[in-house]
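Q: I'm writing a short methods note and want an example of a predicted protein-small molecule complex. Could you take the sequence and the SMILES for zinc ion and return the bound structure as tokens? Please keep the output block clean; save any remarks for afterwards.
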Amino acid sequence: MSLDDRDWWREDRKKKEKLYGGDFSLHSRPKYRKMPDIKPKGTGNGCGNVFATIIVLVVIFVVALASGVQIPGIGLLSEKNSVQSDNNNSIISIPGKITFKREVPYREIDINGSFVTFDSGVPTKTVELAEGISRILLQNDNLLRQFVGNGWTVHLSDHELNGIGDVEHPAGYTDYKNRCIVIYAPHCEHVIFHEFGHYFAYIYECNFENIKSEMDVLYREEARNFVSYRGDQETKYGKKNVNEFFACMYDNMVHDADSSYCPKTENYIKNCYNILANTDYKDIYSVNYEYRVKLEELFQNYGATYTFILDGERIDPKTYDIHDFPTKGFSCQVSGANGTGTLVIQTYDIENDKITA
Ligand SMILES: [Zn+2]
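A: Understood, no commentary inside the block.
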């Protein structure tokens, strides 16, 4: 955990200019619903300010889109927009995480390149919208590096998506196995926030101990009180299960909608977001926590002298980057004696939880 003493959203201006400059030059006038007015939550804790900042950014972005104005990227992250910060008390508790001991050569990550892919029929303005909102939600270099470095993408589809579970025509879904947020392009502006809510909850759960059970407790305790700013249908959807509850809460929060019906969950999500925002890519993975612990133990226990075969390919356990570990589950057979031998690791999918709409 590399917790940062400074306010992480106060990034170097030049860097942000480079990152955001010119990416938001949209001139059309899409039909946006009116966003709520920005009401920063006073001088609360740092987490609240993170979200207040995001809300400011989202609203500025959408308002600018609606009015056909080019957003001055440098102004988005100016201190003016994050002056509510006054301390760093936002880390309420630091959950347990794995500390790796191996010298893993992490790959280069280009956070300036696009991570949005799209079908041929998707309008350019929708692609730019998806990229712009994604970069607002992945607001600092840590969050961007986690997303890109773990191989995540946003894909825009020009045709309706296949049903998932009991959702017949999802506007979007999050595919954890393939590390992709998939969106039916005409619904992008509505659904992208919800899907990023799934992404953040999942990444948090993957990387810190006991998160799943904590989320389950919050769901049982508070979901019945949830009210979505999007209306009754979304309110019902947010109560459906723990995954939807967190995604809908996140959607509410980045739109500055009233989330006080579920105060513990609201605080929890702020905390989750802040911890992720303060953690470098090298410590954040898209692999289930428990499986990663087991895999890492194998690497540490046998890595010095054993041969590792992962899904038929020989890998070097000293340098294998677990960011690349392909799925959530695996089985392993160890053969050999006297400190040498072979580990054959076979990965497999876990059907459950692979995709959420
Ligand atoms: Zn969902």
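A: Remarks, as requested: Strands lie at 116-118, 153-157, 172-175, 180-184, 306-310, 313-315, 329-337, 340-348, 355-356. The chain has two domains: 13-283, 289-356.
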